[in-house]
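Open question from group meeting: does this chain pack into something compact, or does most of it stay loose? Before anyone orders reagents, we agreed to write out a predicted structure and look at it together. Recording both the input and the output here so the notebook holds the full record.
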Amino acid sequence: MSNNYILAIITALISIISTPLVRKLAIKVNAIDVPKEARRVNTRPIPVLGGLAIYIAFVIGTILYNGILTTSQIGIIIGATIIVIGGIIDDIKDLRPKYKLIIQVLAAVCLIVSGVKITVITNPFVELYPYLSMGWINIPLTIIWIVGVTNAFNLIDGLDGLAAGIAFISSVTLMIVSILNGRLEAAFLTAVLSGAILGFLPYNFNPASIFMGDTGSQLLGFLLAAISIEGAIKSATAFVIAVPILAFGLPIYDTLFAMIRRKVNGKSIMQADRGHLHHRLLDMGLSQKQVVVIMYLISAVLGGIAIIAMQISTQRAYFLLTLVIIIIVLVAWKYGIFSHKE
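Structure tokens returned:
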């Protein structure tokens, strides 16, 4: 436990030190976010690539843990490196969606090869058979999970400090879940990630001096998705779906609602709009900081529910997840989250 806190502090310091250096690099290579669309919230050019500082801190912290990397840790670092390389190219050149998807799938495959995959999930329906073996389905299921969460955090990165703060809350949630279940490797990975994000946040919170860019938002989604497979479990093999879906609730639901909204309104699911939750809150007259704090609170509540779900029976955990989803859908429907906004 104490080692986790020390590692978190170390990675936070590394992130604090490296972020200004990454900012200078971003300016030098012209990785600048210049607002050109009406839906964009920032009104001035801001350097991106901030995710590179988080990546550096995470990798160093992971290596410092015991000096000898496990196979799964190597897979996570290789996958994260692929995501970061793709993110850097995207932040500088603007990659087409299909190329981003290829990069994400490649990173997911690296995880699978290293043994990080969803092989068994808990069964809430039949007590005599508490676990369901995924068989060959584990490969596409793992890829869908990794790619889905990676893109969910990428899409929610729309305000200063929003994606980073929600990722921090999600990471702390996973760390608590991992500690409660004796998953020491996942606990230390989330401690390292939490510190890396925390060190970056002062530069990214409104008014931001640097954005994490696709480099950071995709990296955070990828790492959280990967670590959740390692840590959001009740045994050494069973993946409790309810826990990570609650822990990453805000990005996941916002992304799903965006896909439904665009499909219902005859738009491409890849077409950006101003229908995300943070846009809706801004349109209500709230400031950036107020919107971010509100979404932090929502994420923290969902994280707390995820921790509760981990401590109760599988059936009750899935019932709790279903109840939360119903409430979220009803609230979203009431406030017009499915109506299209340019």
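Observations to bring back to the group:
Residues 2-240 form one domain.
Residues 233-238 have pLDDT under 50 and may be disordered.
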